[in-house]
Queue: 2 jobs
Job 1
Amino acid sequence: MIDTIVQVVLLLVMPPLLLGVIVKTKAAFAGRVGAPLLQSYYDIIKLFRKGSVLSGTTTWVFLAGPAVTAVAVVLAGLVVPMGGQPAPIRFAGDLILFAYLLALGRFFTTLAALDTGSSFEGMGAAREVTFACLAEPAMFFGLLALARLTGGLSLSGLFGGQVLEAWTSAAPTMVLVLGGFFIVLLVENSRIPFDDPNTHLELTMIHEVMVLDHGGPALGTVLYGAAVKLFVLAAIVVRLAMPAWTDDPLLRWPVFAGSMLLVAVLIGVIESIMARLRLPLVPNLLMGACVLTAFGFVLVLGATS
Amino acid sequence: MGDEPAESLAWVLAVWLPLVGVIVIGASGLPGLFLRRDSAAGERVSATLHVLGAAAALAGAIVSVVAGGAASLNVAWGLPIGSFRVEVDGLSAAFLVPLILVPALGSVFGVRYWSQREHPRSGRKLRAFYGVLAASLILLTIARDGVLFLLSWEGMALSAYFLVTTDDRDPEARAAGWVYFVATHVGTLALFAFFAVLYEATGSLGLDALPAGSATLGVTTTLFLLGLVGFGLKAGIMPLHVWLPGAHAAAPSHVSAVLSGVVLKTGIYGLARMTSMLPDPPVFWGGLVLTLGVISGVAGVVFAIAQHDLKRLLAYHSIENVGIIVMGLGLAMLGRSMGRPDWIALGLGGAILHVWNHSFFKSLLFFSAGSVIHQIHTREIDRMGGLARTMPITAVMFLCGAVAICGLPPLNGFVSELLVYLGLLRTLGPADGSSAAGAAFAAPALALIGALAAACFVKVFGAVFLGSPREARAHTAHESPRAMLIPMAILAAVCIGVGLLPSVAAPLLDGASRAWTSGWGGTARSLQEVAPLWWVSGMSAGVWIGAAACVYALRRRVRPREIARVGTWDCGYAAPSARMQYSASSLAQLLVGIFGWIVHPREHGPHVRGLFPRPGKYHSHVHDVVLDEWILPAMRWIAGQTMRMRVLQTGRIQVYILYILGALVALILSIVPVLDLLGRLVTQ
């Protein structure tokens, strides 16, 4: 019960901190002081206090987009096990619900982008849906490999106690799946090398360009939803990378929070040392991720049957 | 009456109510034929009769489900073969629900969509054949005799041909009609062969389960392949789908809804019925069906993305969804071959629930697309835009259908896809170490299908309803009349309802599984045991409540503090125009490029030369690879080869008389033992 409450609170409160850590890491690499760690919180609060300038082209879809997306990613976060504990909501097949809730969020984000009738936002939407088509099979091959190894049908089973066993019995597969999931984490959250959140040119962006016309509370909701999505996917990567968890409830959650911040630092490092890929190359990298996880799956098929 | 005594009133009702429905629906279009061309009475009478007949038939299906078991009726008729034998079992009942509901809603929609006033020439014909089509659908689902089945099958095929060519002055509709006509009869030919082999093997034309060991594997495999071609052509499984896109695009929208939502499902019904009949299926049958499902699913949605025509696009999505249904069926067949009742429950349950769902959300999409086309008078997606302002209710209805068809929670499409996914994941079980784990490769394929479908419907909804109107007609469009909106609203409510409470459908699906397995004495597991249906209900409710609350809160926050309404950010460009918006084709361009090896896109662009190039036109086109690159060239080759036989056709009557004489002599020689006679002559 306590664990459930802690997880829900962390899920709702901690995500913007990850963004702050990423920015701080990048600043450290660049030799700058950088924005405060809590800057994302300040931004979101400030945005919610602002008025809105809406485009005359938009309809109700424009505001429904960010709202539905935020709800979808938070609900998706409720089926993801965190801190080595089972998720608050778990049932056979919840992994499919997880993937489809993320897809629901994407569906409404892209519709809200198209609602403005702007070509920039159209480009962003086209890229988002295209890259999702390649990221989705990569994620499913990874989930299949884990399902084969752990015998689970829910995320809490896939990312439960048997992850440790899976590492000892099928380490190559686990490495491939971890790599694949990390790439999915980067592309789903529009990070470098897929998308540069800080670029100033609308023509080259993916996520940021889709929300160009959102402002005020709507933009705040978008930022918050994006942060939660990063948090949720990072939690999966953390669970995969850290197969052993302590039973001490006092230690469990600080370790979880710390390792989440480590993922954020890692993303910051990647963003500092890599350049964004040219757009035509992005599908290649995604197909690479798909091949990685598919190969991992084939390995466990051969190994156990 | 029949051979079997009627057990109770419920059994009598379960058989007679659908038959009454068949008669009333079949005759629903006839009164209109005797009325004036432009009289509105005919369309009202036909819709009323259709709805009444549908209510009777639906009541029969519900009674049969509640009563359980299989109600049947067998009457000898005057024909030398076959008999009038009908039976409503669980499988029939499960298919009857969408097969009755969707055409009835379509007939109401059609009152205003294809009114006598607007279409005095074709309206009466449309309504007459529409009734025949809907009646044949019900009859073929309950027919248990091969001859009766083929009769109703042909009734459906022929009336559908006349419906596709409703607008018979349009050359495109005539061409689509011909392709359909040829394709459906190739399928019927396969079914004739199917029943001939069945009669040869069992001595009966009944659609009953063959006892185990009653036929060799060679015979059952022949039956299976013949049925797969015959029913697969109707269901539109890739690469047997060639008739489907053209016919769906050319027909009036409510007919497209019936074709796509219901007529395709008779092919699925046939496959399900056939696979329950044939004994001892080897594993490769299920594997083949599953593979065909994956191919249909992926290729269908990839072709859909590349389309410019709204109804053609929806038609390709039917191929995709039939693929998902067939995947579920293949999984159930694997479960039967390998003795896994849970795969059967999930695979067959998922397939039949997807039959329902696809009927409902695809009809919803075709109705709302029809409502748009009725206003804009074009099917070109790139000429629409901004319709969410002028047709807000239609837009919401289309969005509802779009979310459902992408399999996204909280609507019904998610539930059936979840069942298929769960079944596929269960093939992985590490304990049994069986070879069926290869089936799990279908799960990432299903994920790819889902993501591509979402991309496609983002494109369609964005280009049709969002942004600014691209052409003048979109500015002046009006919301459709209530008679068109109410059928859509009912379908949307069903989509929402099944998404929220899938457990309500579970008894019907279990009944279908029981009927499917009872043929070969297998055990059926209840869907509730193997699928977390109540969890799905809870999460669907969570999405609805959360989304409603969040949207409401955000609007409350934004609306009172709205500072200004301005133009969309355009980098300060001085003269933006609606034609500069990102079009549907440009949205799809990246994906069409990636999957170019499947769809073979053709582009015809201007050759840009010099500093001041002339104005040019760009044009891109994706044709149907199977029809235009494989079948039509093959047909042309055959036609070219047979041209050689024209040497025989001289046109001179003397030559023809010579042919007749030659034929007669040949006949006589074949009857008279010539060699024998010659031999005797020689020996004498």
Job 2
Amino acid sequence: MAKEGLKRTSLYETHLKHGAKMVPFAGWEMPVQYCGILEEHKAVRTAAGLFDVSHMGEIWLEGERAAEAVQKLVTNDATGLQDNRVMYSPMCYPDGGVVDDILVYRAADRRYLLVVNAGNRDKDLAWIKEQVGDLVDVTDRSAETALLALQGPRAEDILQKLTTLPLAGMRYYCFAAGKVNGTDALVSRTGYTGEDGFEIFVAWEKAAELWEALLEAGAGAGLQPAGLGARDTLRFEACLPLYGQELSEQITPLEAGLESFVKLDKPDFIGREALAGQHRQGPPRRLVGFEMLDRGIPRTGYPLRDENGRQIGFVTSGTFAPTLQKNLGLGLVETGYARRGTIIVVEVRKKMLRARVIPTPFYKRPK
Amino acid sequence: MKVPENLNYSKEHEWAEQREGGVIRVGVTDYAQDAMGDVVFVELPETGQSFAAGESFGSLESVKAVSDCYMPVGGTVTAVNEALLDAPELVNKDPYGEGWLIEVEPSDEQELENLLSAEEYKQYLTTLKDEGGD
């Protein structure tokens, strides 16, 4: 019953065994939920959740000029990026539109790992080869690399049971190579939920074993398998952008509020000129967070209007935020409507519902 | 999937229950609530509003999506389940009981005969599974 043309991770059978509901996502058949999105969301905020994110792409840049290639591709500045450190960055086109938003891992002076969105993998690979293929060896190791995300306040305790890597000393956005559950792994303190947590890269065929070992190690700590549904509500509350919604080829990182990841003082990178121009003039649109005042849930693509009914933008993401128990949205609006407290109107299936611009992120984990 | 014997069903996964005084109580089936996942928002009509059979009378929203609710029979709304406004999760917890949506005074009782019996609805659900969709 494989759905036509959809790829499966090595955990497909494991997901079915754990009662997952599978859906198509970015060309993959992925678990959207196990016991329910709300319960999984809560588990990650209060204990821990385990996600299969093996659909993400892993592209390696290797060679003497690897650092130079990275600097050309991404808008953030990797100059100070040390070995075993991770950096988030948009990767742009010359016009400032976003090819993808990625994580850059510096494994060594001459070796960098780029972790890219599943739906962009082919496009990214072609783009990277075209732009820096003459500088470095570009290798797509996505098909042999599985990725598990263990997220939540109990993640460290749980993972520490399976590894001798000293996790307490590993800071956010750092990583290390070592054994986890007896198998070679790359462990990084990163995630996409707004919680503390780890992402664990292992060989494709080792993932199912590690998945079960982690669930067992976390059984007493409230660890639950969690699907893409909870991943989306978690990242939404933390206001982490989702490519295709908050970022796209038509939305620049400056419009999306990612100016701290665009280093215009870096000598050169793809998109610099366009982004510098937009920075000088001020971006015409801004990403804002808003809270519904009237009853209704904003959804991706719904029009945003001013109080006179003129369209001023659109919703990029929106849902009922489980931790905050509110109907919230992210939207791209004309800059004049981006100020905190501004009343905007969301068109929800032909009804005009009022909302108020509020600060982001909606959720910040307690320190 | 629970499919109580005493109810009638539509292919849109609504159930209809004949109650005292000729009123029809309407809700969504166990299959529907399971397919939607956690219901977090419910939009219901006002009492006194009239709808034809098959017309949308409201919507249920899960974390991820919006689903319209369709009238299994035409008629006038005589009651709505106000409890759902504060507790939409009742639709998941008890779709045939506390999670009911509206009550309707049918405009034409004959329309009930167009609905599926429990047996026919169960049969219908198996055809959906064969297609692998929902």
